[in-house]
Structure to design on (333 residues):
């Protein structure tokens, strides 16, 4: 009698757990622009009217976070290994003044949407001087960095790095993309004011992460920019959040995400490029009498237009007082 009652219950429980596991393993989402979509925002991050996710605007020493609002199950319960996952997104970085910019964007996998004590500037809104490098962080990130920071062994002012628990990248490279099967490469600047697409793919069986970047109008190459072999399971918890972190330094820079797709145990769905919002113009444009004179529209109402005279004054000040220190920006930024 006992077995007749218990066995069906155990069977039902097993089926329920199996179905739940499968559902979690197949988690995925896609944002072709962020119009009306749920995203958890923090700091300076906000969604502007045309559907752009703006992580930072043109203010100094700011940070912004944007996360998918729900935690994702990243580990296989029986063996504790991290699932295969992939993501792709399109971003744009627009400096207020040419050759004066920083700091960058990072795709982040973290146990919490809150990043306690996170600082802007060289910490990219992810860490601070006390917790950078701590094993207890359980943070995995891919940084798109526009500053050469000797403190964290940055290689130049235009690089991509894979970070585990800190900002000293475990794998990094100058930004470029393969143009043929022989791995001949073309350099790519992160700060062009034009959209760039990124693919991040982790193979949970082989323990390998690949990172690839191209201009938005170039197909994904077969050869990635970075290919890093390491089992991420010891560095990640069962339940994690995915999203973006960004920060600025002493120079004003806007960081945007145009679209984003993520998939657990499979390739992320392709973004529909034609549906993505447009980036603001980089730099001044010719104006008609009816135009407001602000080149970075649309912008949130709380950000007021800056008169041309003030912009020119700030530019002259930057040039006179800071250009000699520009190459040391990672030290004082």
């Amino acid at each position: 009698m006992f077995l007749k009652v218990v066995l069906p219950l155990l069977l039902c429980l097993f089926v329920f757990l199996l179905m739940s596991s499968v559902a979690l393993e197949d988690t995925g989402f896609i944002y072709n622009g962020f119009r009306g979509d749920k995203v958890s925002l923090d700091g300076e991050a906000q969604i502007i009217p045309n559907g752009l996710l703006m992580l930072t605007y043109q203010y100094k020493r700011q940070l912004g976070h944007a996360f998918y609002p729900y935690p994702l199950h990243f580990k296989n319960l029986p063996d504790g290994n991290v699932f295969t996952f992939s993501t792709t997104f399109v971003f744009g970085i627009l400096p207020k003044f040419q050759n004066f910019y920083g700091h960058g964007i990072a795709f982040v996998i973290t146990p919490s949407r809150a990043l306690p004590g996170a600082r802007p500037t060289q910490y990219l809104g992810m860490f601070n001087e006390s917790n950078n490098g701590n094993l207890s962080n359980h943070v995995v990130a891919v940084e798109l960095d526009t500053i050469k920071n000797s403190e964290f062994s940055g290689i130049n002012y235009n690089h991509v790095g894979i970070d585990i628990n800190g900002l000293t990248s475990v794998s990094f490279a100058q930004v470029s993309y393969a143009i043929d099967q022989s791995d001949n490469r073309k350099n790519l600047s992160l700060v062009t004011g034009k959209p760039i697409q990124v693919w991040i793919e982790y193979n949970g069986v082989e323990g390998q992460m690949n990172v690839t970047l191209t201009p938005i109008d170039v197909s994904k190459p077969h050869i990635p920019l970075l290919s890093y072999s390491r089992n991420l399971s010891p560095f990640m918890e069962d339940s994690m959040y995915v999203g973006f972190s960004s920060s600025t330094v002493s120079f004003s820079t806007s960081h945007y995400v145009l679209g984003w797709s993520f998939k657990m145990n499979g390739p992320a769905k392709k973004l529909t490029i034609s549906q993505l919002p447009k980036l603001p113009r980089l730099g001044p444009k010719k104006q008609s009498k009816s135009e407001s004179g602000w080149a970075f529209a649309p912008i949130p109402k709380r950000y007021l237009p800056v008169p041309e005279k003030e912009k020119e004054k700030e530019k002259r000040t930057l040039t006179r007082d800071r250009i000699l220190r520009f190459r040391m920006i990672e030290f004082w930024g």
Summary: Residues 81 and 233 are 5 Å apart (CA to CA). The two ends are 73 Å apart (CA to CA).
